[in-house]
Design brief:
One of its GO terms (molecular function) is oxidoreductase activity. The relative contact order is 0.19. This protein has 489 residues and is an alpha/beta fold. Helices cover 32% and strands 22% of the residues. Among the domains are: 167 residues, 3-Layer(bba) Sandwich (FAD/NAD(P)-binding domain), CATH 3.50.50.60; 103 residues, Guanine Nucleotide Dissociation Inhibitor, domain 1. The chain has 17 helices and 20 strands. The chain has a seven-stranded mixed sheet with strand order 8-7-16-17-18-15-19. A five-stranded parallel sheet has the order 10-2-1-14-20. The structure holds flavin-adenine dinucleotide. Flavin-adenine dinucleotide binds next to α1, β19 and α16.
Length: 489
């Protein structure tokens, strides 16, 4: 396995492990990556749907303009052309704002599609005024209330040791239930996959500051045009191999061996022992402690990881015999469904004859409860289809050829108050041991961006220990001058 002094063993081939591997291999470090599954990509993965024989994603993954490290990683490995950048979002909300409803109950359509697009000439953050202004399901007073709330949220200094949940903060600010349901809930639950009752103020602040207020294109959404397995599969594998990195698929690591405060090797699940002095553990947080010896100096500092809670995400996959909407995607307001992705339109090139849609329901704790109380997947799928029918009547005429529901119970870590204290640094107390993974300390929620950042940080620490110190993360984007003045960013 090469010179064991400079070799880095990476455990886990998710985005954190991959970003770390690519970065180290590009800098001449000899890398061996072990992934227990037969493919790379980790939680951003696909599987074959038996009935359609199509490769479908466990759940639609999207990136945003503000995900700079992830977007740069995609460029580095040559996959950025597999994303389409949405410069217009579609919000499907109640056809009338509350004021309109009290004036007249005559509208027949329950839902209306609102297009959300920024101005091409106004500076940030004013460029978003036309977009927010166009949300017809909020009254003018509600929009003003929302702007007041956003301004306060951006400016508030957060005490990480004693911060409220977003629900508590919104109540303190006197934000009305309608604005909470139709705006804060819609954006934050899908961005952070948690309910407002559990989201910490600091994470909510990050979503709005980084995603909307800091710079012009940060809010734009990037959607993969190929299945995730294809995205994070062969191209990255080949690139790693070209750089002499060894990738071992279907090879789980049982344990990291530590002696006298130093890494000395790893034991594979098949019993093989490999000696090495540098290991990056890039597995989900639930698995970390099981990879480490029961006792070693420095273990206590990692035990907080066990207190990190997870949050679920559900996706409902639907195949119809006809197109129910031409929109490539839509964000739903006041519905069980939260996002719709028109995969047949998004995929390049789509060879399917059926029309495939994916509906995402983040923070789906409530569905798990319902399943337990006897509400079957079939009923949940029927509710989703009924919602689509109310929005796009063509759904009633379409035949639902096939459907399935996938719930990832440990999709992301839960961004509750106090979470930042539980997230460890990528550098540990053990010589030669580093951590990576979306759950390590990056300041980002559980996202592909957070995972890539963690991989870069781990690589940065390792290179530093090898005497090749270098700053690997990009400087923070320049904040627009007006955003600085208005929000003190
Ligand atoms: C349903 C769902 C929807 C999501 N939507 C989005 C989204 O829209 N946008 C976004 O940015 N993020 C999204 N995320 C989050 C994103 O997928 C994760 O934050 C990111 O992929 C985590 O990467 P990671 O490398 O930290 O961990 P993982 O992807 O979990 O990778 C860890 C890897 O370690 C491997 N492993 C574990 N134990 C061992 C062992 N003993 N030996 C060898 N290998 C091992 C695992 O098999 C896995 O491949 C979503 C996640 C889910 C589940």
């Amino acid at each position: 396995m090469g010179d064991k002094n400079s070799e880095a063993v990476i455990i886990g081939g998710g985005l954190a492990g991959l970003a770390c591997a690519v970065t180290l291999a590009d800098r001449g470090v000899s890398v061996s990556l072990f992934e227990s599954r037969p493919r790379l990509g980790g939680r951003a993965s696909s599987f074959e749907d038996k009935q359609t024989q199509a490769l479908i994603d466990n759940c639609q993954h999207v990136s945003m303009g503000c995900c700079e490290e992830f977007n740069r990683f995609c460029q580095t490995v040559g996959i950025s052309y597999c994303f389409r950048r949405e410069k217009q979002l579609y919000f499907v909300g109640p056809a009338k704002s509350n004021n309109d409803l009290s004036a007249s109950n005559e509208s027949r359509a329950r839902f209306k599609v609102n297009s959300f697009a920024a101005s091409s000439w106004l500076p940030a953050p004013l460029h978003l005024l036309p977009a927010f202004g166009g949300l017809s399901y909020l009254s003018i007073q509600e929009k003003m209330e929302l702007v007041r709330g956003l301004k306060r949220l951006a400016r508030i200094p957060v005490d990480f040791n004693n911060e409220p949940t977003m629900a508590e903060w919104l109540a303190d600010q006197g934000q009305s239930q309608n604005v909470i349901n139709r705006f804060w809930n819609v954006v934050l639950v899908s961005a952070l996959s948690e309910s407002l009752e559990r989201i910490s103020l600091s994470h909510a602040q990050k979503v709005f500051v980084d995603g909307f207020l800091r710079a012009r294109d940060n809010w734009q959404v990037l959607i993969p045009t190929v299945p995730l397995e294809q995205l994070y599969g062969d191209v990255i594998l080949r690139r790693l191999e070209q750089k002499q990195a060894k990738v071992h698929l279907q090879t789980g690591v049982e344990r990291v061996q530590i002696e006298a405060g130093k890494v000395v090797g790893v034991q594979l699940r098949d019993g093989q022992d490999l000696s090495c002095e540098r290991v990056i553990i890039a597995v989900p947080h639930q698995r970390v402690l099981s990879l480490l010896p029961d006792t070693f100096k420095g273990r206590e500092s990692l035990e907080s990881v066990e207190q990190i809670e997870a949050a679920p995400i559900t996706s409902v996959h639907l195949w119809f015999d006809r197109e129910i909407t031409e929109l490539p995607h839509a964000v739903f307001v006041d519905c069980l469904s939260q996002w719709m992705f028109n995969r047949s339109r998004i995929m390049q090139p789509s060879s399917e004859t059926d029309f495939y849609y994916q509906i995402v329901i983040s923070a789906s704790h409530h569905l798990r409860g319902e399943e337990r109380q006897g509400r079957s997947q079939k009923e949940i799928i029927a509710e989703v289809v009924e919602e689509l029918s109310q929005i796009w009547p063509e759904t009633r005429r379409a035949k639902l050829i096939h459907s399935r529901m996938v719930t990832e119970h440990q999709a992301v870590f839960s961004v509750q108050p106090g979470i930042e204290e539980l997230r460890p640094s990528q550098r540990t107390d053990v010589s030669g041991l580093y951590l990576a993974g979306d759950w390590t300390s990056t300041g980002w929620p559980a996202t592909m961006e957070g995972a890539v950042r963690s991989g870069l940080k781990a690589a940065e620490f390792l290179l530093d220990d090898l005497g090749q110190g270098e700053s690997l993360l990009l400087q923070q984007t320049q904040t627009g001058i007006l955003s600085k003045i208005l929000f003190r960013l």
